[in-house]
Specification:
By secondary structure, the protein is an alpha+beta fold. The protein is built from 25 helices and 20 strands. The longest helix has 20 residues.
C-alpha cells in the first residue's frame, strides 16, 4: 500500500511512498486540508542522497505506532529541498534561530492557519538515544503544546516571524561604513582564513571562499596568510584527497575528517562543477600541478559516463550508499568505492601493489572501517604502473575496462539497483532529475576548463547541456527549474536565473576563444543571456530593497516571507552571482542600466558584507567585478592566446576595426586606455586595470 508520494516525480519523495505515514506533497490542497481540520503541519524536508534522511525514512517514518499518531494528529508534508530551495531556506533559518545549527533532514512543525513554524529539529530516532528524545515523545509533546498553550504559541510564532522579516529586509549601511577597497581586503582575509588548513572536523570544498581567496591574491595584501599557498593547498587537498574518486573520477561531497581522507560518499553535480572551475583557475594562474589536470579530466569522464542524459543535460547526484550484493536488505555507505586489502592483493601484481602503497594511503588495516579509501600521498604525475593498477580497479568496480565504457546507465532507485545484472559492483542510486542551477555550475566549470586546457570536447559537453535548457525549460514563456525525463516543472528561482546567465556568459567567452570548434547555433549565447536577464529583472528584482528575491513575484503566495539569497553555502549565493553577471553584461553590451542595478544590489548587501564577511564570498567577488571590471577588445587570434590566462575581472569582445598598429583596446567602464602596440603592453594595462579598485 503506497501513499500519495508514489505519484510524485522526485526520487526523494518516492523513497517515502511506502511509509505508513499519510504523506502529502507541498500543495494548496494539503495546506487547505490542514486549515480545515485544524491540524498542525509536520513538514519534513530532505534530499535523495542525504544519508540521515534515508536513515529516518527507514526508522521513524516506517514505524507503525508513530505513523498512527502522526496521521491522527498532524498533516504530514514531504518536500524535496532540491525542488523547493525557497521553502528549505525559510524553514532552515527557523531551525538555526532555535538551535544555532542546521542540517538535514529538516523537520519543522507549522501552525495550520499561517504556516509559521513553532518547533524544528533534524534527525529524530524512534527511541531516545544520542541525547535526543524518541520521535513519538516529540509528537505527543508538540500536539499537547499546540492545543493547550495558545498564548505562548502566539508569542513564539510572533518572535519567529519578526526574526525572519528582520533577516529578509537587512540593515542598511551608514555613511560610516568602511570604503570598498578596505571591504575587499577584509573579505579576502576572512575567506582565506576560512580555507586555511584546520585541525578538527569535517572538510568541505567551500569553493566560493576559495575562488575569492584566489582572485584576491593579485592585490598582494600585507597579511598573515600566503594567499597563493593557501589556495594551492586547497587544490591539492581536493585533487589528492580521498574526497576525489581516483578510480572512477568525480568528487564526493566532503570528508568526515580534517585530513581529507574519508569522504561522505555521495557525489553532487554542484560540487563537481565548481571544483572543475576552481582547479582550472589555479592552473591558469600558473599553478600547473599535474594532479589538477588529471582530476579535471577524470571528473569530465565520470560526468560523460554516469551523469549525462541522452538529451545532453546532467543528472543531479549519486547516493553515498549502495548494496554489497543483491540479497542485502539495506545499502551501506561507500560500498561502491572502497577496497579491502585482500582485494588489492588479488587484483594487482606485487609491483603494482607496492607502488600503490608508496603513492597512496594503503595499509592492511585500512582507513575506513577496515576498508581502504584511496588517498594520494604526493603531488605530481602518476606512473604508468599506477595508471594500469587504477585501471584494473576500475574494471573490478564497473565490469569493463575504462577505454570501452563510455556510458554506464544509472540505477534510478534501490529496486533497479538490486535487480539489474551489473557486470561489476552494484552502483549507488543516481538522482536523474535535471536542476537548472546545478547544470549551470557544471556548464561554467566545463567552459573554463575548455579554455584553460584547450579541450574542445569540454566546451561541446557544456554547450549540449545549455542547448537542452534553452530548448526545454521555457513553458508558456517562463523559465522553469526542473526537468524530469523531458517534462519541465517548477518555476525557476533566483539561483537558476543567476547561475544559468553566468553559464551563458561563460559559454560566450569560451566560444570566442575556440571559434574553430564551435557550431553556428552557438554564436548567440550573449543574446540568450540578455533575454533571460530581462525575465529575471521583471519577476525577481526588488525595487524597494535592491537585489533579487528567491522566488518570482507571481509564485510566492505560499511563503511566509520573501527572501533574497546572499549567503554562500555549498553553492554560491544567487545575488552574488547575479550582481557579477550585471557588471559583465554592462561590459559586453554597453548598457549602463545593468551597472545601475549592480550598484543598487551591492548597496543593499553592503551591511552584510561589512558585518558578516564570512557569510558572503560571492558578494565580494561581485564587488571585485564592480570596481575592477576590464574589457579587452581584440581579434580572435589574441583572444585565443589570452583567454587561458587567469584574468578574473576581464571580459573579451571580438572586434576587427582596431586602431592601426595596435593589438587591442583595454577599456574600463566608460573609457578605453591608449591603444597598446604589443601583447606585453596590453597585459601590463590589464594588470593595472584589474587592480585599480
Amino acid at each position: 500500500m503506497t501513499n500519495r508520494l508514489a505519484e510524485e516525480k522526485s526520487l526523494y519523495l518516492r523513497k517515502h511512498a511506502e511509509n505508513p505515514i499519510d504523506w502529502w506533497p507541498w500543495c494548496d490542497e494539503a495546506l487547505e486540508t490542514a486549515r480545515v481540520q485544524n491540524k498542525p503541519i509536520f513538514l519534513s524536508i530532505g534530499y535523495s542522497s542525504c544519508h540521515w534522511c534515508t536513515v529516518m525514512e527507514g526508522e521513524a517514518f516506517s514505524d507503525l505506532e508513530i505513523a498512527q499518531y502522526m496521521n491522527a494528529n498532524f498533516l504530514p508534508i514531504k518536500v524535496d529541498r532540491e525542488e523547493r530551495p525557497d521553502l528549505d531556506s525559510i524553514y532552515m533559518q527557523t531551525l538555526q534561530f532555535m538551535s544555532g545549527q542546521g542540517g538535514w533532514p529538516l523537520n519543522v512543525f507549522l501552525a495550520a492557519d499561517d504556516l509559521v513554524p513553532f518547533y524544528a529539529g533534524t534527525y529524530f530516532p524512534v527511541d531516545p538515544r544520542y541525547g535526543r528524545p524518541g520521535f513519538l515523545q516529540v509528537l505527543e509533546a508538540l500536539r499537547r503544546y499546540y492545543d493547550t498553550e495558545k498564548d505562548e504559541l502566539r508569542q513564539r510564532k510572533a518572535l519567529i516571524v519578526e526574526a525572519l522579516l528582520t533577516s529578509a529586509v537587512l540593515q542598511k549601511v551608514t555613511s560610516q561604513e568602511v570604503a570598498d577597497n578596505q571591504l575587499l581586503q577584509r573579505g579576502w582575509e576572512t575567506c582565506t582564513g576560512i580555507i586555511t588548513s584546520k585541525q578538527v572536523g569535517n572538510s568541505f570544498p567551500m569553493i566560493p571562499y576559495a575562488e575569492f581567496a584566489l582572485r584576491g591574491t593579485r592585490f598582494n595584501y600585507q597579511s598573515q596568510y600566503n594567499g597563493q599557498q593557501v589556495c594551492t593547498q586547497r587544490g591539492l587537498d581536493l585533487a589528492l584527497g580521498g574526497i576525489y574518486d581516483h578510480v572512477g573520477g568525480g568528487f564526493h561531497r566532503y570528508t568526515v575528517d580534517p585530513t581529507w581522507t574519508v569522504p561522505h560518499f555521495e557525489k553532487m553535480l554542484y560540487d563537481n562543477g565548481q571544483i572543475i572551475e576552481y582547479l582550472a583557475n589555479l592552473w591558469s594562474g600558473g599553478i600547473q600541478e599535474p594532479a589538477f589536470e588529471r582530476a579535471v579530466a577524470g571528473t569530465v569522464k565520470w560526468l560523460q559516463r554516469e551523469m549525462t542524459a541522452q538529451g545532453g543535460y546532467f543528472y543531479a547526484a549519486q547516493d553515498a550508499d549502495s548494496f554489497i550484493n543483491s540479497t542485502a536488505i539495506e545499502p551501506e555507505e561507500g560500498t561502491f568505492y572502497v577496497w579491502s586489502y585482500r582485494e588489492l592483493q588479488q587484483l594487482l601484481t606485487t609491483e603494482e601493489l607496492k607502488e600503490l602503497q608508496q603513492q597512496f594511503a594503503v595499509t592492511a588495516n585500512g582507513n575506513f572501517e577496515g576498508q581502504i579509501v584511496l588517498q594520494r600521498l604526493h603531488p605530481g604525475e602518476l606512473s604508468q604502473t599506477l595508471e594500469i593498477a587504477l585501471s584494473k580497479l576500475f574494471t573490478a568496480r564497473y565490469g569493463a575496462i575504462p577505454e570501452s565504457l563510455s556510458n554506464f546507465p544509472p540505477a534510478r532507485d534501490n529496486q533497479e539497483a538490486k535487480t539489474t545484472n551489473w557486470p561489476g559492483r552494484i552502483p549507488a542510486v543516481t538522482d536523474t532529475k535535471m536542476i537548472v542551477a546545478w547544470n549551470s555550475l557544471m556548464i561554467s566549470g566545463l567552459a573554463r576548463a575548455a579554455e584553460v586546457f584547450q579541450q574542445p570536447n569540454y566546451l561541446e559537453l557544456a554547450a549540449q547541456a545549455a542547448r537542452f535548457i534553452l530548448d526545454h525549460q521555457f513553458v508558456d514563456g517562463r523559465f522553469h527549474r526542473l526537468n524530469y525525463e523531458g517534462e519541465a516543472t517548477v518555476l525557476a528561482q533566483s539561483e537558476d536565473y543567476a547561475f544559468f546567465i553566468k553559464a551563458l556568459l561563460d559559454l560566450h567567452q569560451a566560444t570566442l576563444g575556440q571559434l574553430d570548434h564551435v557550431s553556428t547555433q552557438d554564436s548567440d549565447w550573449l543574446e540568450k543571456a540578455v533575454s533571460l536577464q530581462d525575465e529575471f529583472d521583471e519577476f525577481l528584482w526588488s525595487i524597494e530593497l535592491g537585489g533579487y528575491f528567491n522566488t518570482s513575484s507571481d509564485n510566492s503566495q505560499d511563503l511566509i516571507v520573501r527572501e533574497r539569497s546572499y549567503i554562500d553555502n555549498a553553492t554560491p549565493s544567487a545575488n552574488g552571482i547575479a550582481i557579477a553577471n550585471l557588471v559583465r553584461l554592462a561590459l559586453l553590451t554597453d548598457n549602463l542600466h545593468y551597472l545601475d542595478l549592480a550598484e543598487q544590489g551591492l548597496t543593499a548587501f553592503k551591511g552584510v558584507m561589512s558585518n558578516s564577511p564570512q557569510a558572503c564570498p560571492s558578494l565580494f567577488t561581485a564587488l571585485d567585478w564592480y570596481h575592477n571590471s576590464t574589457l579587452i577588445r581584440t581579434s580572435t587570434e589574441q583572444i585565443t592566446s589570452l583567454i587561458n590566462k587567469y584574468l578574473p575581472t576581464v571580459a573579451f569582445a571580438m572586434v576587427s576595426d582596431l586602431p592601426e598598429g595596435s593589438v587591442g583596446l583595454v577599456c574600463q567602464g566608460l573609457k578605453c586606455l591608449p591603444a597598446p602596440a604589443s601583447v606585453e603592453q596590453l597585459l601590463e594595462q590589464v594588470q593595472r586595470s584589474q587592480n585599480r579598485g
